[in-house]
């Protein structure tokens, strides 16, 4: 007997979008068939023309718990994720306190994790912690994150090339990815006041170009998987194309805000838009779209980096640089994608299947296929809504998408076949699991 059969006209499978029936039993996808079988099914759900997609994996989220729980926290972050069809998050090693650069810090984070979604964890690479890398691997981190410029908090300092030369052989030995914030910074100009244009000039594209050049060189030298997070500078794309053509184990993500917003439209003084690297000009961002559609950029992740409102004060030099968008991951990307005639299947690749390859969960998550976890989202790509910040599940209602009209509404979200979100209602106690590489 099957627990659930979901029947619909737009089921996104590895073979494309098609009419199908997804059979679920004991938390797994038992089969994908064309008609409801004769044997017993406890419940049949006909979603007609709504889309059934694998649950989204967002591999770039700052949950900030423990230690800076007033910034976000597992409960609010994972509830917000469900409302966007996200079923798995991978939490960054900052901005929690302590940062996840030791086993003790990882254990403290896991103890604090009240999960409405599944959640995995990246470890951190900082100067002097190379001896902690293998113990963190043994405890189940999915990979590591490093910064090449100041991270924004002093307890997660940036690494140098010398630090990377010590860490990358260890990471490569275990086949794990090294995620890198790629900006090699120079001193910011004193004129950094007032305007968004001045802020943009203070973090030029050449910072990204130089950092990515360094990481490509080290990737080839150590044969270490390198993942460039939140690419914003299209001028770095030619060297990425060359590295991939040479077969280097290099992957790249960009973020929704680089694909949705353009620098020309950002109002001066609105710190909800401040992030690093910055949102660049329209011409640059259209090149990001071309790279994403052609496969040069592998996936899209939010880089959800929230903070209390008082940290978004003080102008461009002093305010926190991070964008809150976790609950809007699906509609923000889809709204921009539908304007460019992107098929739903490609959207699912960027949000569902490619992130699981990065996280190492691709053998059991990210596909509607036999034997995979029944982590699923039912959504309406044709329904629009206006973003009301106070209605978001994020701990703080600060978002550059405020009052934007977006398309794509997550109607129901399932974890292992259990409906956990239903049109604004949370229908189960926290069901999420820790995703550990053991």
Automatic annotation (TrEMBL):
Residues 51-384 form the Amidohydrolase-related domain. Keywords: Hydrolase, Metal-binding, Zinc. Gene3D superfamilies: Metal-dependent hydrolases (3.20.20.140). One of its GO terms (biological process) is allantoin catabolic process. Its cofactor is Zn(2+). Pathway: Nitrogen metabolism; (S)-allantoin degradation; allantoate from (S)-allantoin: step 1/1. Pfam families: Amidohydro_1 (PF01979). One of its GO terms (cellular component) is cytoplasm. GO terms for molecular function: allantoinase activity; cobalt ion binding; zinc ion binding. Its EC number is 3.5.2.5. PROSITE patterns: DIHYDROOROTASE_1. Belongs to the metallo-dependent hydrolases superfamily. DHOase family. Class I DHOase subfamily. Belongs to the metallo-dependent hydrolases superfamily. Allantoinase family. Homotetramer. Catalyzes the reversible cyclization of carbamoyl aspartate to dihydroorotate. This is allantoinase. The gene is allB.
């Amino acid at each position: 007997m099957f627990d659930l059969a979901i029947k619909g006209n737009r089921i996104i499978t590895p073979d494309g979008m098609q009419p199908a029936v997804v059979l679920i039993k004991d938390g797994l996808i038992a089969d994908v068939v064309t008609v409801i079988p004769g044997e017993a099914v406890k419940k049949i759900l006909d979603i007609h023309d709504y889309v059934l997609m694998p649950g989204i994996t967002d591999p770039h989220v700052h949950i900030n718990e423990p230690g800076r729980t007033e910034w976000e926290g597992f409960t609010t972050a994972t509830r917000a994720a469900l409302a966007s069809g996200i079923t798995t998050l991978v939490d960054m090693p900052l901005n929690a306190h302590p940062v996840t650069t030791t086993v003790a810090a990882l254990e403290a984070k896991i103890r604090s994790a009240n999960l409405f979604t599944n959640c995995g964890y990246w470890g951190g690479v900082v100067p002097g912690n190379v001896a902690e890398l293998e113990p963190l691997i043994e405890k189940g981190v999915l990979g590591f994150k490093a910064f090449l410029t100041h991270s924004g908090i002093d307890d997660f300092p940036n690494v140098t090339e010398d630090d990377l030369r010590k860490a990358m052989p260890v990471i490569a030995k275990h086949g794990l990815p090294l995620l890198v914030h790629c900006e090699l910074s120079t001193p910011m100009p004193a004129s950094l006041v007032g305007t968004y244009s001045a802020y943009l000039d203070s973090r030029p594209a050449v910072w990204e170009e130089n950092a990515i050049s360094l990481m490509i060189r080290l990737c080839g030298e150590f044969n270490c998987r390198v993942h460039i997070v939140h690419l914003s500078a299209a001028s770095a794309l030619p060297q990425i194309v060359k590295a991939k053509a040479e077969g280097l184990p290099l992957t790249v993500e960009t973020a929704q805000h680089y694909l949705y917003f353009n620098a020309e439209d950002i109002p001066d003084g609105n710190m909800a838009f401040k992030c690093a690297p910055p949102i660049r000009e329209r011409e640059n961002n259209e090149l990001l779209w071309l790279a994403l559609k052609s496969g040069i950029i592998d996936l899209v992740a939010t880089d959800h980096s929230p903070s209390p409102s008082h940290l978004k004060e003080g102008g461009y030099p002093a305010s926190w640089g991070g964008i809150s968008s976790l609950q809007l991951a699906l509609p923000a990307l889809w709204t921009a994608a539908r304007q460019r005639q992107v098929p739903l299947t490609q959207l699912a690749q960027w949000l569902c299947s490619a992130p699981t390859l990065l996280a190492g969960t691709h053998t059991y998550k990210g596909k509607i296929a036999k034997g995979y976890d029944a982590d699923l989202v039912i959504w309406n790509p044709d329904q629009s809504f206006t973003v009301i910040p106070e209605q978001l599940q994020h701990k703080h209602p600060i978002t550059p998408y405020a009052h934007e009209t977006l398309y794509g509404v997550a109607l129901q979200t399932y974890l292992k076949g259990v409906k956990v979100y239903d049109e604004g209602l949370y229908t189960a106690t926290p069901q999420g699991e820790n995703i550990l590489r053991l």
